[in-house]
Amino acid sequence: ATILKTAGRDPRGTVLEVGPGHGILTLPLAERFGTVVAVEKDARLAAELGETLQKKGIANVRLHTGDILDLFPDKLNLGARYLVVANIPYYLTGRLLRTLLESPQRPERMALLVQREVAERIVAKPPRMNLLGLSVQAYGNPRVVARVPKTAFRPQPNVESAVVAVEHISDAFFRDQNIQPEQFFTVIRAGFSTKRKTLANALASWAGSKSEAEALLTAADIDPRTRAETLSLDEWAALARQS
Fold this sequence. Notes:
- Helices cover 41% and strands 20% of the residues.
- The protein has helices at 2-7, 26-32, 43-56, 68-71, 93-102, 116-122, 131-137, 172-177, 181-191, 199-202, 204-207, 210-219, 233-242; strands spanning 10-18, 33-40, 61-65, 83-87, 109-115, 141-148, 161-167.
- The protein contains 13 helices and seven strands.
- Strands 3-2-1-4-5-7-6 form a seven-stranded mixed sheet.
């Protein structure tokens, strides 16, 4: 599978698998990595997977039953270096990626199976930038590895999927730009809070008034009449430094 190829192999490494389900990826991951930490929210599926692992005598999978957002990172004992492999449901994508990336115990890289539309948002560039894309690109380098047709799944879903790799994950962007993540996320959320408004209007309440927003934008060398989706990562950083 493409996602396994993207994950690679490291006989001494650790992989966090989110949503292992029936273990289709868990078993081959256990052959490729030293430790697999698998987190399954569905207690029935987790029990079935636990039985399968026991029957096959697979001892290097640590199976946790519960919500990844509740368990990560304190209850998982992941160590300093690990990668994430996940088949992420649509509704969870943004929250899970932010939780993983903003943690001091962030992964080094990720191999994700997501809806194709979500994949396109993660790798977007101006003038189609968006909150999810900025949030991921601030921490790592995402790329679409492959598109996965509906026919690859049973039962067949209504949407196309894609495998996304996020590599070189760190907080280097924030250090290099001399900004705090909170500054950055506050300003991008404000910028995208009202669609189809110019940035000066969208940022008015964040800045205190429209004229103050215009002054901050001008100081950051950004046209106040432009819109949020047209700004690059570096331009948002320049704006955050003004705050």
